[in-house]
Amino acid sequence: MLDFCRRPVAVDLFAGAGGFSLGIEQAGFDVAVAVEVDPIHAATHAYNFPHTKVLCADARKLSGKAIKEAAIQASGEIDLVIGGPPCQGFSLMGKRCLEDERNDLVFEFCRLVVELQPRYFVMENVPGIAQKEHAIYLDLINSELEAAGYCITQPVKVLKTAEFGVPQNRKRLILLGSRAGERQLEYPKPLIPNPQSVFTTVRDAIADLPNLDDFPELLTSDEVLLERRQLKKMRSLASLYAQQLMEASPDLNNFAYRRLSCGNLLTGSLRTQHSTTSIERFQKTLPGELESVSRFRRLHWDKLSHTLRAGTGSGGGRYTSPRPIHPDYHRVISVREAARLHSFPDWFRFHTTKWHGFRQIGNSVPPLLARAVGRQVIASLGIIPPKPKEPIELGNTQLLRFNPWEAARYWSVSSQGIVKLES
Predict the structure, then answer these.
(1) What is the pLDDT of residue 418?
(2) What is the pLDDT of residues 63-94, one digit of tens each?
(3) Overall pTM > 0.70
(4) Where does the record place the catalytic residues (predicted)?
(5) Residue in 5, 87, 151, 262 annotated catalytic
(6) Nearest to 79 by CA among 119, 117, 30
(7) Which residues fall within 8 angstroms of residue 83, CB to CB, at 6 or more apart?
(8) CATH assignment of 9-194+362-411, given 3.40.50.20, 3.40.50.2000, 3.40.50.150, 3.40.350.10?
(9) 167 with 324: CB under 8 angstroms?
């Protein structure tokens, strides 16, 4: 029998800026609690999800009891636990390491699932966790959770984000678990059966966005108010995909709370100033090709973006991952353009610095992928969630401007080693 009366409750572990949280909310869940160790990312999550209790804490030092106490609206029952434990130790990109301390965080996810006893859980990770010497980790995870009374949906699958409407060539392993006595979860079927011929393109995602070089204020700020004519031009160029991210076209499958935001404010658009020699090299780089010096790849209007990566944190030397070159302009893409390629709506804001902004996107689960998985959980729960009628206010924009020490003070945590365990 279907339940029309409630929105189920979710908890997001290793929440980052909130890509997984957003997609799950769009599926119809209320995200009661989000756990994130990095104060900068926790502040960004708090800005975008003012209705969620954010715990800026190390998951290794957090108990399920503490999370349950924070989830006061859950009334003792948590329907879903989600999370993407940091994964660089498993990554196929760069050096893989069995001894990487981040590998152990997948077992902290398991521990908290066992302590919280949700009806369902979804864990996201890189495909490398299921390959070669790292496959032992996946076997151990399965054994630990099955021993705790959870049925793991088999075979474990790697999902392609392009098959769910994301204009990016990105693959993620998704682990689905159902508590004993619950209807077993199934993987979502692709919304786009053949992404090789029919998919959301780079053009669909960013062609309507204006040329940042036309706005001198974006040299010092990540936001600018667009004039009515500029906004009208954007909407005339926007694909259905872009219109839905702009909230200029209805999205019937979106059950998220509407955020009150300024519709003509372009955010996440701080300009990158390149040297003359870099610009000359970018000019010579053809769409889809790699620029040999910077190792930046130029996007192709009519294809998918390659995988957007986060780079490394301070523990790895604050390395910025190569950013794509715009298909037309001789510069790297902006944070907002990267957010469009990741399926974030335009109201969703990131830290005002490009370094943190790109890291937050690269570490996120694309919301459209998370939504597709979340809808499967909704179906297994037998719920048709109500669409929220009242919009909610976003948080204080100061949350997006903190430096690491200010963010640590805000959350009353230590600033030491803030980003060492990021994914």
Answers:
(1) 52
(2) 999 999 998 765 568 999 999 998 655 444 44
(3) yes
(4) 87
(5) 87
(6) 119
(7) 12, 13, 14, 15, 20, 109, 121, 122, 123, 124
(8) 3.40.50.150
(9) no
